[in-house]
Specification:
Mean pLDDT: 81
Radius of gyration: 33 Å
Distance between the termini: 21 Å
CATH architecture of the largest domain: Up-down Bundle
Largest sheet: 5 strands, mixed, barrel
Strand order of the largest sheet: 13-15-14-19-18
CATH class of the largest domain: Mainly Alpha
Shape: elongated
Function: Part of the Sec protein translocase complex. Interacts with the SecYEG preprotein conducting channel. SecDF uses the proton motive force (PMF) to complete protein translocation after the ATP-dependent function of SecA.
Strand content: 25-35%
GO biological process, one term: protein transport by the Sec complex
Number of domains: 4
Number of helices: 15
Structural class: alpha+beta
InterPro entries: Acrflvin-R, SecD, SecD-TM, SecD/SecF_arch_bac, SecD/SecF_CS, SecD_1st, SecD_SecF_C, SecD_SecF_C_bact
Number of strands: 22
Membrane topology: Multi-pass membrane protein
Helix content: 40-55%
Subunit structure: Forms a complex with SecF. Part of the essential Sec protein translocation apparatus which comprises SecA, SecYEG and auxiliary proteins SecDF-YajC and YidC.
């Protein structure tokens, strides 16, 4: 038989279509407006929290569609956007700073479909929206951090040069250095004058002091760099979250806009984006008694720190190294199967760590985790008020001289180690940031434009179906079935891809592939018509029509696929979205237009031995 498919080919086509339809199905159920509650470091999600949430909602007469607790979070499904906003306001007030109360959109597909991995296709901000954050940077804290780092670097430089000094301290944005003698003052001036770009030296011979003064140009450059560094780090953190096509840009002097299209876990997004985390490595004070310090007699040059999990530790004020020198961090397990974080430093950090630990082998070294948490209040001068939380996460004995690669242990659970590694790997924000505005974003083109666009899409699709059905008759109906199946497969494949987001340019890519799928069927059907005109039998016309049109279809689609790959490789944002849907559409359209329609044609006409004519 000329036009015959073995059973396995029919089963393959049916299996592909069913799988595509299965994973496209969640898009029919839509999403519910929801509230997602997760705990900060000081909070905990448990049944008591769940009962408190239910009590608060009842007191405000807010009827949720459903409340569930899983994976350490509470998800509340609401019946409307107004109920969602009302629930967020009251819960954020009642639960306080120990919990993150975030807006969300929860997929409404059945549990059995979710268990199979079925999730609705994520839509971009220009279609469905996503999460919009407006963040404010505390520039005063940024300058304070830079001054502290400058003091530490100046002390290290003086020690390396063997210059004796009585003190190095902050003085406004400048650094004031007091030397032991006039000779030390001259040596320090020569050593530091050309070392630090953006600073000038001012010598006071009467008091043997030297001032490193920050120039106005360098002050302005530092402020700009603080914003730029925070933007870069936020981009890295968004990449860690796996969000497609994010928008992260500066707004004004000290604000940053972050838009996350199609994001699901908004609570985790707030936690990761808003966290300002870094490390400090300090030596443990072993010369003084911890109990004396706990009773209030803290020795000069040392400080008492809380230990994560309970207890306290007395540490030296001298900072060995800060987290600014960390270039990579990963979580893992030590030889005792305990969670650890592997740290990699830059060359400067490696040298500083090596010099500091050279003569301290056998001494304990503590890892201090520092985090700034917004209090939700403002200071008298209108700035954001942050609480600086410092805790010792690890104390380990130095077994050998350390360098650029080492590890810290005792960081808690594997999840704590993974979270800490993520924050350190993405970078430490140079200044604390506070989310001053959060909202879900509707279509940027407006609801009316979206409705008009969908109307145009549906109208165009229907016209194509009518044309194919009328012009090619029964074969046109076959093409229409393939065209509809192609759309289902595109949606199903995109729903399966983690992080894939459909945007307006992506919809344009889908429409283009619909036209290309029709072109493929038109080539095949016109070729069949030509074969019939040349006097071939209907069975021979079908076979030669598909065989001869295949090379032309393949050439056209492969060249377009190459263009799509190039667009994805060199493009950004909307261009990538267009390229992804175009590439997926090309592959699915070749399957439906060639293999899919051939299977239907073979099943409908190929088994007929005495076929006198075709409805084409």
């Amino acid at each position: 038989m000329l036009n015959y498919y073995p059973k396995w080919k029919y089963l393959m086509v049916i299996a592909v279509v069913l799988i595509g339809a299965l994973y496209a199905l969640p898009n029919l159920y839509g999403e519910d407006p929801a509230i997602q509650i997760s705990a900060t470091r000081s909070g905990e999600i448990n049944t008591t929290t769940l009962q408190q949430v239910e009590s608060v909602l009842r007191s405000e007469s807010i009827e949720p569609r459903g409340i569930s607790m899983e994976d350490g979070q509470i998800l509340i499904r609401l019946n409307s956007d107004d109920a969602q906003l009302a629930a967020q306001d009251v819960l954020a007030t009642e639960l306080g700073r120990d919990y993150i109360v975030a807006l969300n959109l929860a997929p409404a597909q059945p549990a059995w479909l979710a268990a199979l991995g079925g999730q609705p296709l994520k839509l971009g901000l220009d279609l469905r929206g996503g999460v919009h954050f407006l963040m404010e940077v505390d520039m005063e804290e940024a300058m304070k951090k830079i001054r502290e780092q400058m003091v530490t670097e100046v002390r290290s430089s003086l020690r390396e040069e063997g210059i004796r000094y009585s003190g190095v301290e902050e003085d406004g944005n400048d650094v004031r250095i007091t030397l032991r003698s006039a000779a030390d003052l001259e040596q320090a001036n020569n050593a530091l004058r050309n070392t630090y770009q953006g600073y000038t030296t001012d010598v006071d011979g009467d008091s043997n002091s030297l001032r490193l003064e920050m120039t106005d140009e360098y002050l302005q450059e530092t402020r700009v760099n603080a914003i730029s560094q925070n933007i870069t780090i936020l981009r890295n953190r968004v990449n860690e979250l796996g969000v497609a096509e994010p928008v992260i840009q500066r707004q004004g002097q000290d604000r940053i806009v972050v838009e996350l299209p199609g994001v699901q876990d908004t609570a985790r997004a707030k936690e990761i984006l808003g966290a300002t985390a870094t490390l400090e490595f300090r030596f443990v004070d072993t010369e003084n008694d911890l109990r004396d310090a706990q009773s209030g007699r803290v020795p000069f040059g040392s400080r008492l720190y809380d230990v994560r999990g309970g207890g306290q530790q007395l540490l030296e004020n001298r900072i060995i190294l800060t987290g600014d020198h960390i270039v990579n961090a990963s979580s893992g397990f030590d030889e005792n199967n305990r969670a650890q974080v592997n740290i990699q430093l830059d060359s400067a950090g490696g040298n500083m760590m090596s010099l500091a630990t050279r003569d301290r082998i056998g001494d304990p070294m503590a890892t201090v985790f520092i985090e700034f948490i917004a209090t939700g209040e403002t200071t008298e001068d209108g700035r954001i008020d942050f609480e600086r939380v410092e805790e010792v996460v690890s104390v380990a004995t130095i077994q050998a001289r350390l360098g650029s690669n080492f590890r810290i242990t005792g960081v808690g659970s594997p999840a704590d180690a993974q979270n800490l590694a993520l924050l350190l790997r993405a970078g430490a924000l140079i200044a604390p940031i506070q989310i001053v505005e959060e909202r879900t974003v509707g279509p940027s083109l407006g609801a009316q434009n979206i409705r008009d666009g969908l109307t145009a899409i549906v109208s165009g699709f229907v016209l194509v179906l009518l044309f194919m059905g009328i012009y090619y008759r029964k074969f046109g109906l076959v093409a229409n079935a393939a065209l509809f199946t192609n759309l289902v497969l595109i949606v199903g494949v995109m729903s399966l891809i983690p992080g894939a987001t459909l945007t307006m340019p992506g919809m344009a890519g889908i429409l283009l592939t619909v036209g290309m799928a029709v072109d493929a069927n038109v080539l095949i059907f016109e070729r069949i018509r030509e074969e019939l005109k040349e006097g071939r039998s209907p069975q021979q016309a079908i076979k030669h029509g598909y065989d001869n049109a295949l090379s032309s279809i393949a050439d056209g689609n492969i060249t377009t696929l190459i263009a799509a790959i190039i667009l994805f490789a060199v493009g950004t944002g909307p261009i990538k979205g267009f390229a992804v849907t175009l590439a997926i559409g090309i592959l699915t359209s070749m399957f439906t237009a060639i293999i899919g329609t051939r299977a239907i044609v073979n099943f409908a006409w190929g088994r007929k031995k005495r076929l006198s004519k075709l409805s084409i």
